[in-house]
Amino acid sequence: MTKQLVIKVTAGADAPERCSQAFTVAAVAVASGVRVSLWLTGESSWFALPGKAAEFELPHAAPLPDLLDSLLAGGAVTLCTQCAARRGITQDDVLDGVRIAGAQVFVQEVMEEDVRALVY
């Protein structure tokens, strides 16, 4: 079985360094051949919407749209159900490739064999 990395990012523009770290680690893992599941929760939920990643700026950091594109191409990106609902975001609103799922799916993922989980 291939190892998987599940990353839950709770930070967005409110904590740019923490947010960027989560996306960077996830993208590097994908580039290294690791199965990656990135969960967008809290303020990072906005990055599930078209154009929102382009609004994010952090000096000396990889552009968030590039990181997100690599994750959508080679990993899984999930938006938290409750976080989406609180922000009025529906499946029709999100980028292609982003799914909306809840805590039950998150728990299933992190409880699989050979899974490592990080929270940012």
UniProtKB/TrEMBL annotation:
Classification via Pfam families: DsrE
Domain of life per record: Bacteria
Family matches, as InterPro entries: DsrEFH-like, Sulphur_relay_DsrE/F-like
Protein's name according to its UniProt entry: DsrE family protein
